[in-house]
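Incident log, support desk, overnight shift.

02:14 A customer reports that sequence design results differ from what the structure should imply. Their input is reproduced verbatim below. On-call engineer (initials T.W.) acknowledged and began investigating.
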C-alpha cells in the first residue's frame, strides 16, 4: 500500500500580511469588518432604535411642558454717597465663601416659605397637587382620576415650599459676585413671577436681618455709653488731683526738666559728631606724614583738606608737568642728560614742599580736635547735672503717667462708642442691603423642556448605543465557525470545502420503489435485490444537480484526495465530526456519489455502528452487513448494496442490531483485512465514522484510514468543542486532510465573508431536487 502523505498544520499567514500591509489596507479591512458586523447586527440596532424612539415619543406625549425664567442679583457692599458711614457690625469681606453662603441662603426654607406666603402658592394645584410630576401626567394621559387627600394648612405650606425648592436653581456666575435665580414651572407667567419673588424675598430678608442686628446693637450701646461716661470722669478727676498734690507743672504735655535734658542731649550728639570728624582728619594726615622720605606716594596721598588747599594743588600740578618732561627728555636725550637730572632735582624739591604744607595742615587739625573735645566734655557735664535734677521729678511722674493713660483710654473709648451710637441711629432709619437686583425675570417666550429634537436625538443615540452594545455582545459570544478563514486561523488546518445548506422539498419521496428514473429519462431498469432506490431528496443533490455549488464543494474534497496521489492505491477516506447532527453522513454519501459519477469504483462503508444513519436511508431493509462479514457469517458479495445509476456500492450495518464494544471491532484484525480487500477492489473506500465526542471509535480507525475529513456545522458547532475534539483525536491530526464547513447559510454568509456570498449567490448554480 502506498505510504500515507502527511498534511502539516496550516500556518496562519494573516499576521504577516497585516505587517506588510499599508495603513490604507488596514483601514479598508477594518472598515469592511465594521460594515459586516453592522450588516449582521442591523436588526438589533433597528429594533432598539425604534424602541428608544417610541419611548421618546411617549415621553414627549406624557411629559408636561416646563418654562424657565431667570433673574439676577449682585452681592454689593457699596453705600450711597449721602449715607457714607461705618457699620457698627463687623462685615466679612465678599469672597467666594461669602457668595456661596448667599447661594445657600437663597435655597433655604425661609425664602421658599416667604414666597409661598406672598404668592399664595398653597392654592396653586401645581405646587400642592396630591400627585405631581410625571406620575400625574401619566394618570392624566390615561384618563385616570387620582382622589385628593385631605391635608392641613401646614402640610400644604410645606409641600408648596418643597415644590418651590425642587424647581429652583441657584448658581453663581463664574467667579463674579452675580447670582442667577432660575425657576421652572408649567406656566411661563408663574415661572417669572416666582423668580422675581425669590429675589425680592432675599432682599427683604437682608434688610430685616440688618434692622434686627442694628436694634440689638443700639440697645447694647446705650447701656455701654452710660458706664463709659462715668469711668472717664472718675479717671480725669484723679489726674487733676495728683498734679495739684505734687506741684507738677508741664508745658506742651512734658515737664520742664525733661525738655531741658532733651535739648542738652541734642547738643551733645552734635558735639560728639564734630569731635569724631576732627579726629578722623587728624588720623588720616598723620598716616600720610609717617612717610620718612618724601616720595611719589606722598604726592598721590589723599586728604580732604589737602585737596582744597591751593598751594598743594599748585605744587601737584607742577609736579605732574615735570614728570611728563622727565619722561619726554629721557626718551629723547637719555636718563643721564643734564636736563633730565635737573628735572629730577626739581621734582624732589616739590615733594619736600608738599610735605611741609601737609605738616602745617596737621597742626591745624590737631588744634580743631582739641577744641571740639573740650566742648564735648562741657556738654556732658551739663547733661549730668540736668539728669540729677530731674530724677526727683521723674519719681512723681510715674504714677501720673499711669493715671493719664487710664483717663485717655477711657475718653477715647467713650468717644468711639458715642460715634458708633450715632451711626447705629442713622442705620436704623435707613438700612442698606448687601445685594441688589441686576435684572428681573421676564416671561419666557418658549418652553424649556421637553425639546423634541433633543429627546428624539437622545433616544436615537441611546438606542444605537444599547443596540450596538448588545450587538457587540452577540458578536463576542458568537463562538461558532462562520468562514473558512476562521477555521484556518483557529484550527491551523485548511478549509477544503464550504458546503451550502440544502433544504429538502420532499419531491420524489413517493416514487414507486420498482421504477428508477435515469437522469430524467423515461427509461427504467428492473429493481434487483439489495438495490438502492434514489429519489429527489437532499442527499441526492450531487446526482440531481451536478453543476450546483453543493456539488462543486464536494468536488473540492475529491480534488484534495486526488492531489495526494492515493487514488491509484485505493485510498480510504473517513469522515467524522465533533458531535451528531453536523451532516457528516450526508457529506460522506455525497462524496461517494460524486466519485461514482466520474466512473471510479467506490464503496461507502457505514462504520457508525452505534447510529448507522446511512444504512437507515439507503438500505432500510438490510438484514446483514458489516458485522456479519467481520464475524464470518456472510461474504462481502452477499451484503453489499448497489445504486444502479452511478454503480456506487454500499456496505451497510444492520440498523436493528445492537452492537457492543464498537471500538474493539473497528480496531480488530478482521476489520483491517476487510478494508485491505476493499482497497484492492475499489478505487475509493469512503467510511462514515461516528462523532469524536460520542465515542472513541475514530481513534481506533487510524490504522485503517488514509484521509480524514472533519465536518463542522456552520453557525452551530462551537469553536471550543471542535478544538477539544481535535485535541482528543491527536493521532488523527497527521492524516487530517482538511475541514469541511457544512450547512452554510448562503443568504447570510455575506455578512461574514463577501466572496462566498458573491460566488454562491449565482442562482444559476442553485441545487435542484
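02:41 Re-run completed on a clean worker. Output:
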Amino acid at each position: 500500500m502506498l505510504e500515507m502523505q502527511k498534511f502539516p498544520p496550516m500556518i496562519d499567514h494573516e499576521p504577516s500580511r497585516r505587517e506588510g500591509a499599508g495603513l490604507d489596507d488596514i483601514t479598508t479591512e477594518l472598515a469592511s469588518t465594521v460594515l459586516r458586523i453592522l450588516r449582521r447586527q442591523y436588526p438589533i440596532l433597528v429594533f432598539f432604535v425604534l424602541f428608544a424612539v417610541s419611548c421618546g415619543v411617549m415621553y414627549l406625549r406624557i411629559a408636561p411642558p416646563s418654562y424657565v425664567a431667570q433673574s439676577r442679583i449682585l452681592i454689593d457692599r457699596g453705600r450711597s454717597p449721602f449715607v457714607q458711614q461705618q457699620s457698627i457690625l463687623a462685615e466679612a469681606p465678599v469672597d467666594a465663601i461669602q457668595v456661596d453662603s448667599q447661594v445657600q441662603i437663597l435655597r433655604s426654607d425661609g425664602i421658599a416659605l416667604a414666597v409661598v406666603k406672598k404668592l399664595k402658592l398653597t392654592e396653586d394645584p401645581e405646587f400642592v397637587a396630591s400627585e405631581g410630576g410625571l406620575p400625574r401626567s401619566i394618570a392624566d394621559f390615561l384618563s385616570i382620576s387620582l382622589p385628593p387627600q385631605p391635608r392641613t394648612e401646614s402640610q400644604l405650606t410645606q409641600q408648596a415650599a418643597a415644590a418651590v425648592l425642587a424647581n429652583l436653581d441657584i448658581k453663581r456666575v463664574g467667579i463674579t459676585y452675580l447670582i442667577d435665580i432660575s425657576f421652572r414651572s408649567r406656566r411661563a407667567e408663574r415661572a417669572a413671577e416666582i423668580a422675581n419673588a425669590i429675589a425680592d424675598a432675599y432682599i427683604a430678608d437682608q434688610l430685616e436681618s440688618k434692622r434686627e442686628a442694628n436694634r440689638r446693637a443700639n440697645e447694647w450701646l446705650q447701656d455701654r455709653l452710660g458706664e463709659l461716661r462715668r469711668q472717664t470722669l472718675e479717671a480725669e478727676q484723679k489726674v487733676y488731683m495728683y498734679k495739684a498734690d505734687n506741684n507738677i507743672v508741664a508745658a506742651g504735655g512734658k515737664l520742664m526738666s525733661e525738655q531741658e535734658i532733651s535739648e542738652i542731649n541734642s547738643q551733645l550728639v552734635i558735639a560728639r559728631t564734630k569731635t569724631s570728624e576732627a579726629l578722623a582728619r587728624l588720623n588720616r594726615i598723620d598716616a600720610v606724614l609717617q612717610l620718612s622720605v618724601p616720595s611719589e606716594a606722598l604726592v598721590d596721598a589723599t586728604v580732604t583738606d589737602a585737596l582744597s588747599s591751593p598751594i598743594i594743588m599748585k605744587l601737584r600740578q607742577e609736579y605732574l608737568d615735570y614728570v611728563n618732561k622727565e619722561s619726554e627728555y629721557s626718551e629723547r636725550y637719555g636718563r643721564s642728560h643734564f636736563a633730565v637730572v635737573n628735572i629730577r632735582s626739581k621734582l624732589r624739591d616739590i615733594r619736600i614742599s608738599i610735605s611741609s604744607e601737609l605738616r602745617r595742615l596737621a597742626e591745624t587739625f590737631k588744634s580743631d580736635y582739641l577744641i571740639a573735645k573740650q566742648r564735648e566734655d562741657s556738654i556732658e557735664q551739663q547733661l549730668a547735672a540736668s539728669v540729677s535734677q530731674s530724677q526727683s521729678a521723674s519719681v512723681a511722674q510715674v504714677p501720673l503717667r499711669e493715671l493719664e493713660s487710664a483717663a485717655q483710654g477711657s475718653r477715647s473709648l467713650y468717644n468711639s462708642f458715642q460715634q458708633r451710637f450715632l451711626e447705629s441711629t442713622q442705620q436704623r432709619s435707613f438700612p442698606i442691603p448687601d445685594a441688589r437686583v441686576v435684572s428681573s425675570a421676564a416671561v419666557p417666550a418658549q418652553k424649556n423642556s421637553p425639546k423634541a429634537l433633543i429627546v428624539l436625538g437622545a433616544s436615537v443615540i441611546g438606542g444605537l448605543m444599547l443596540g450596538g452594545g448588545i450587538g457587540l455582545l452577540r458578536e463576542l459570544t458568537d463562538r461558532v465557525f462562520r468562514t473558512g478563514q476562521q477555521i484556518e486561523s483557529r484550527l491551523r488546518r485548511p478549509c477544503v470545502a464550504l458546503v451550502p445548506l440544502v433544504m429538502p422539498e420532499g419531491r420524489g419521496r413517493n416514487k414507486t420503489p420498482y421504477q428508477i428514473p435515469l437522469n430524467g429519462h423515461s427509461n427504467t431498469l428492473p429493481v434487483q435485490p439489495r438495490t438502492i432506490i434514489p429519489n429527489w431528496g437532499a442527499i441526492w443533490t450531487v446526482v440531481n444537480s451536478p453543476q450546483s455549488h453543493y456539488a462543486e464543494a464536494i468536488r473540492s474534497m475529491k480534488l484534495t484526495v486526488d492531489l495526494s496521489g492515493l487514488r491509484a492505491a485505493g485510498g480510504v477516506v473517513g469522515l467524522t465530526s465533533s458531535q451528531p447532527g453536523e451532516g457528516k453522513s450526508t457529506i460522506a454519501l455525497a462524496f461517494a456519489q460524486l466519485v461514482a459519477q466520474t466512473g471510479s469504483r467506490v464503496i461507502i462503508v457505514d462504520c457508525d455502528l452505534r447510529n448507522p444513519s446511512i444504512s437507515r436511508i439507503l438500505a432500510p431493509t438490510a438484514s446483514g452487513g458489516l458485522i456479519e462479514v467481520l464475524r464470518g457469517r456472510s461474504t462481502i458479495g452477499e451484503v453489499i448494496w448497489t445504486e444502479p445509476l452511478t454503480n456506487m456500492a454500499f456496505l451497510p450495518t444492520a440498523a436493528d442490531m445492537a452492537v457492543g464494544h464498537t471500538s474493539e471491532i473497528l480496531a480488530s484484525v478482521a476489520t483491517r483485512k476487510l478494508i485491505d480487500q476493499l482497497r484492492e477492489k475499489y478505487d475509493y473506500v469512503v467510511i462514515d465514522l461516528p462523532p469524536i465526542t460520542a465515542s472513541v471509535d475514530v481513534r481506533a480507525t487510524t490504522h485503517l484510514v488514509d484521509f480524514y475529513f472533519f465536518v463542522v456545522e456552520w453557525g452551530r458547532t462551537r469553536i471550543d468543542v471542535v478544538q477539544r475534539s481535535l485535541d482528543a483525536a491527536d493521532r488523527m491530526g497527521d492524516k487530517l486532510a482538511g475541514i469541511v464547513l457544512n450547512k452554510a447559510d448562503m443568504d447570510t454568509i455575506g455578512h461574514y465573508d463577501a466572496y462566498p456570498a458573491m460566488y454562491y449567490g449565482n442562482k444559476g448554480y442553485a441545487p435542484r431536487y
